[in-house]
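Example 9 (inverse folding). The structure is encoded as follows.
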């Protein structure tokens, strides 16, 4: 049975059904620290009262415009970095979320990194190394399409992959996975203390919807390049993956860097929820444009005089 807490949280999302466009809050999607069974009671098909893509489009476009405006101040202030982490099963909509929510931002201040199977060089280092090299600097937004969390997800489901990291012997320890969670939490604490804001999205897709999307990839020639037989093989481990996700979400969601579980059966709603959460997180930051240096005031006045004289000739 779903917990009372989970039912209450699901009810909060459902209240919007009678009033289209009701305000959604980031907290409605957040996993509480140490929450037991964080996926139980969460509906991958939830749309919070929006009945169609068309109904949600206006709000999504508005939120993306506001995100772009806020990013301008974020980039100019250079007070914080923003790290966005996307995790989810194959075809859960990570790429389309990036395309529809984040490509409206100034590309000068955004960098997308996709992490696939480690290269030989990457496998020779600790598992955080390759991601640490791609962290955003202050003023910029880094998007990790998959991340170091793969090391407690796909590697958890396929522990044989640890052989390439030279860790097969250590992996036999009962504390191996809990130690990895501790490593990740310590890494994220370090980032937070150095003014990197971390927003972590788990795209919660149903098995049925994944099958539909994989069939669509097969049936549409322009999408076949995305398909791999490995996607079908991984579906056979669906339950193992869901268990790994639940344990990871419970172990690594913190007050400062919570996981947000986004319903992913409707891509348009996933995008809408992500845009709203990102906007809420950016708005709460104490951002402002840099104040000009005292000596700059005189320079600005002088430049203005020169330009006005040119204009008035």
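The amino acid assigned to each position is listed next.
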């Amino acid at each position: 049975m779903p917990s009372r807490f989970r039912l209450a949280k699901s009810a909060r999302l459902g209240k919007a059904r009678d009033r289209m466009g009701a305000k959604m809050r980031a907290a409605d999607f957040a996993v509480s620290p140490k929450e037991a069974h964080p996926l139980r009671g969460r509906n991958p098909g939830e749309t919070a009262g929006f009945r169609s893509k068309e109904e949600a489009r206006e709000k999504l476009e508005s939120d993306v415009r506001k995100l772009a405006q806020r990013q301008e101040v974020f980039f100019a202030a250079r007070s914080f970095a923003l790290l966005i982490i996307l995790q989810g099963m194959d075809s859960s909509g990570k790429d389309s979320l990036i395309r529809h929510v984040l490509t409206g931002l100034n590309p000068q201040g955004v960098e997308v990194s996709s992490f696939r199977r480690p290269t030989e060089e990457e496998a020779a280092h600790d598992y955080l190394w390759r991601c640490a090299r791609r962290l955003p600097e202050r003023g910029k937004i880094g998007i990790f399409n998959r991340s170091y969390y793969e090391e407690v997800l796909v590697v958890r489901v396929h522990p044989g992959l640890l052989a390439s990291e030279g860790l097969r012997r250590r992996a036999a320890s009962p504390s191996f996975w809990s130690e990895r969670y501790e490593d990740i939490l310590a890494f994220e604490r370090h980032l937070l203390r150095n003014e990197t804001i971390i927003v972590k999205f788990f795209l919660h897709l149903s098995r049925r919807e994944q099958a539909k999307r994989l069939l669509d990839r097969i049936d549409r020639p322009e999408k076949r390049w995305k398909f791999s037989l490995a996607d079908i093989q991984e579906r056979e481990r669906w339950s193992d993956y869901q268990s790994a996700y639940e344990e990871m979400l419970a172990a690594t969601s913190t007050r400062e860097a919570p996981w947000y579980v986004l319903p992913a059966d409707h891509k348009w709603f996933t995008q809408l929820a992500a845009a709203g959460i990102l906007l809420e997180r950016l708005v709460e930051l104490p951002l402002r444009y840099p104040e000009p240096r005292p000596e700059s005031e005189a320079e600005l006045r002088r430049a203005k005089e020169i330009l006005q004289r040119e204009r008035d000739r």
